[in-house]
Amino acid sequence: MSHISPEFVPVFGDCIRMVREVLLTNDAQPFLISGSGTLGWDQVAANVIEPGENALVLNTGYFGLETYGANVTQLTAPIGGTVPLPTLTAALQQKKYKLLTFTHVDTSTGVLSPAAQIAQTVRAVSPDTLVVVDAVCSVASEEIRFDEWGLDVVLTASQKGLGTPPGLSVLVASQRAVKAWQRRTVREGSYYASWKKWLPIMKAYEAGQPAYFATPPVNLIYAFHASLLQITARADPSLPSLTQRLAAHRATSQKIKAAARALGLKQVPLQESEAANGMTALYFPEGVKAADLLPRLGKRGVVVAGGLLGSIKDTYFRIGHMGVTAVDEARGDVDKIIKALEDSLEEIKKEKGGK
Amino acid sequence: MSHISPEFVPVFGDCIRMVREVLLTNDAQPFLISGSGTLGWDQVAANVIEPGENALVLNTGYFGLETYGANVTQLTAPIGGTVPLPTLTAALQQKKYKLLTFTHVDTSTGVLSPAAQIAQTVRAVSPDTLVVVDAVCSVASEEIRFDEWGLDVVLTASQKGLGTPPGLSVLVASQRAVKAWQRRTVREGSYYASWKKWLPIMKAYEAGQPAYFATPPVNLIYAFHASLLQITARADPSLPSLTQRLAAHRATSQKIKAAARALGLKQVPLQESEAANGMTALYFPEGVKAADLLPRLGKRGVVVAGGLLGSIKDTYFRIGHMGVTAVDEARGDVDKIIKALEDSLEEIKKEKGGK
């Protein structure tokens, strides 16, 4: 299928419109570009901020900003926690920042940042600072109210909550962010990630016209279209709505976290309200290691991930429960996960007791 | 399928090895990155050349070099022709160039540049200048002898001669190009396209280990693997070898060009030896327009493209005949194209005559 074929053009246009629907925005500008989620950072760094301008980074996640010349100030949080809002307020009062960025769900710890409050704080203290959200691990599994919260950039990828194979950088920019880009005095620092190249393409496809800068990943756009039809419930009115989907993620998350609590397992996030709804990060019980638990879960058909965060890497594991696992109850994934966890821990206990 | 799954890792590694096979190189370094062919230019511009260094461009095609700070000198050729080798020699003698770049097959005109001779000229006159080939429209349809010709970068995409859906930037760098990158004094100008990030990933996957910088397009890598198995004839020893594939492209091309000549159609390339083997660009006969011919071909099941080059855009059309059309004779594509061309022109003649 050609990328300028009359059959393909409206499919691309629909994807752009449905991405707006998923993020609850009326007029923000989606950019769908062949690449991984990381390419979204090149877009931000090369378009939204100019060399020498200041960026405030909460915790981690500022891939590429320095490559393109931004001055980065980092505020760190305790492991499992987020940067306190008063600390953020103080930082914003001290210096003028072109943008602030934070990771909505930190995939390494399962910490959920209070996106609405962070955005609200920025708007109150430093209204011109752009709010850039790394939402790779949160779009379609956590609530994101783009317009209502006043976000400026949400960047993500096709393969997590959006349920499509990897290969598509999905970025949504507010009109305020687009205007900031239009006002730049220094040329965009990237060629492939330049909005000067891509904005006319996105506008053309949305208007039902093909346009060319670089070949879009046609087949992947079709797959993305299929996912979005499901997520927005356009495919079939009997499908859960986006609101219902997010509620299903919360319910699933609570069920798994409650079961973990009953088993005496401690979560990595320090506060229940800051725990992601699409994943659960749990410390191993004392004396138990990854090599004890993970293969036992695997034997029971449950694949979980090890720890990722440097200093506590070997002390915890991560369960993913986004997308179908949360939404399609008939699969019975949640009960299977809980049962596998219970049985594996019981088995370990018996063996250790027997030694 | 996860990008760190033990099943996926060797598939990625095989792709890297088979790309070397397709380009006839022993030790050049392939980079397979989620993105379009254009991303290859960001790789070249941000890694191989440094700000302030000189680039010599034959004709067109230097996407992004200036964005990353290179000084570009352009040598133009007449429409349908290439830059004469003495002109190239003179330019190389006048100034020191970090790299020279040319488009192997110009998709807008079907002109095939004499890649071997250009590379030979550079090696003779300015041995340190790196030879960068935009081979988007030529890999697997034109002969490319990477090592023998002494090329430094060949960049292409998955969706043309390589026969895979779009979404993969495919770039191969000589060890000389890799060393030039290692010697840079200015940091790479791109984050997503930085070889500092990607080289360890490519090396890890080739060695059978997963590694992470940005998520690779897993499903597309599987598709690419399937294409490469066919192109390298690894899938089935009864498949045509790469040599036979290229011969089939030449034979197909000659057949179509001979038929066009018999119909009195003039090619856009000025010299037969500089006409691409994967496509044919033909001027319309006098008095015939795109609107006369293209729909008539379409009715007969043959989709061709209009002209692309600004000044002669409306005076010619382009027939693609790469991949299965050239290799799989049983499809009968070539005869169908020729018959459609003959019948359409005959029909136009009758109608015009009847008016």
UniProtKB/TrEMBL annotation, chains A, B:
Q: Which residues are in coiled coils? A: none
- What are the alphabetically sorted keywords of the record? Aminotransferase, Pyridoxal phosphate, Transferase
| Cofactor(s) required for function per UniProt | pyridoxal 5'-phosphate
In short, the EC number is: 2.6.1.44
Query: Where does this protein hold substrate?
Result: 318
The chain positions of domain Aminotransferase class V read: 66-307
Q: Name one GO molecular function term.
A: alanine-glyoxylate transaminase activity
| Gene3D superfamilies linked | Aspartate Aminotransferase, domain 1 (3.90.1150.10), Type I PLP-dependent aspartate aminotransferase-like (Major domain) (3.40.640.10)
A Gene Ontology BP annotation from the UniProt entry? glycine biosynthetic process, by transamination of glyoxylate
Q: Which top EC class is named for this enzyme in its record?
A: transferase
The record's listing under InterPro entries reads: Aminotrans_V_dom, Aminotrans_V_PyrdxlP_BS, PyrdxlP-dep_Trfase, PyrdxlP-dep_Trfase_major, PyrdxlP-dep_Trfase_small, SP_NH2Trfase/AEP_transaminase
Locate the N6-(pyridoxal phosphate)lysine modifications and list their residues. Answer: 160
Q: Name one Pfam family in it.
A: Aminotran_5
Q: Which GO terms describe its cellular component?
A: peroxisome
Family, as annotated: Belongs to the class-V pyridoxal-phosphate-dependent aminotransferase family.
Q: What is this protein called?
A: alanine--glyoxylate transaminase
- The organism named in the record is Gymnopilus dilepis
